């Protein structure tokens, strides 16, 4: 089976699972994002280990899952803000555990453990506040619109880059990314924003268009940051769980930058 066929089949299954989980219920949304966090953090810590460091992989993943769960419970008004106080001793325990690991690079290992939580779990936890409202309950439309814009830019930038790319965007980190791909993807995604505004009317076309520009710019940076991690240890993909697409972190690297900014944008408007 050719790579393009494998990539297409995997992509379709991926879209069905993500869209279906978000739309079906807030419980399937919760499960989906917990799995994304765990998968992304596992791959992130594995990359760090390949570089010779030794973060607290299992405990870091547990903390990531707890951070998302705490935000989910708070967003649903099941608990009050005091739940976040419980995260303080959990974070402190990372330092205490490191005392017993006899590591030669204790500070670095602690740093990578915390970075996995900050880089992955914290940004994705903000999805709770995009989908869950104390007045309107669970509303998936804004989050799905966000993902449609993210996927559209990623795909269209790739198409334009392959077709017309001549001027490298950031050759030291990602030799294949081009200004032509970025510009073509950005302009085309504005058209997608118009289509989204017809179906998801919580935001106007202008508001969706501004969101698409934010996603294009900072999604590109998110992709480049993850690429720099992989290039630093000479790895092509963060994992292999998604045949033809790499790992979970490869699929959500842009989201880690754009989701917090999309949430901030929603608070401003």
What descriptors fit this protein?
269 residues, mainly alpha, two-stranded antiparallel sheet, 4% strand, globular
Description:
The chain is mainly α. It has one domain. Helices cover 73% and strands 4% of the residues. It has eleven helices and four strands. Strands 1-2 form a two-stranded antiparallel ribbon. The chain starts with a helix and ends with a helix. The relative contact order is 0.13.
In short:
73% of the residues lie in helices and 4% in strands. It contains 11 helices and 4 strands, in the order ααααααββαββαααα.
Secondary structure layout plus pairing:
Elements (H helix, E strand, L loop, with lengths): L2 H22 L1 H25 L6 H19 L11 H13 L6 H20 L1 H5 E2 L3 E2 L2 H24 L3 E3 L3 E5 H21 L5 H28 L15 H5 L2 H14 L1
Antiparallel strand pairs: 1-2, 3-4
Helix pairs in contact: 1-2, 2-3, 2-5, 3-4, 3-5, 4-5, 5-11, 7-8, 7-9, 8-9, 9-11
- Widest β-sheet, arrangement of strands: 1-2
> How confident overall, as mean pLDDT?
90
Question: Percentage of helical residues?
Answer: over 70%
Topology order in helix (H) and strand (E) letters = HHHHHHEEHEEHHHH
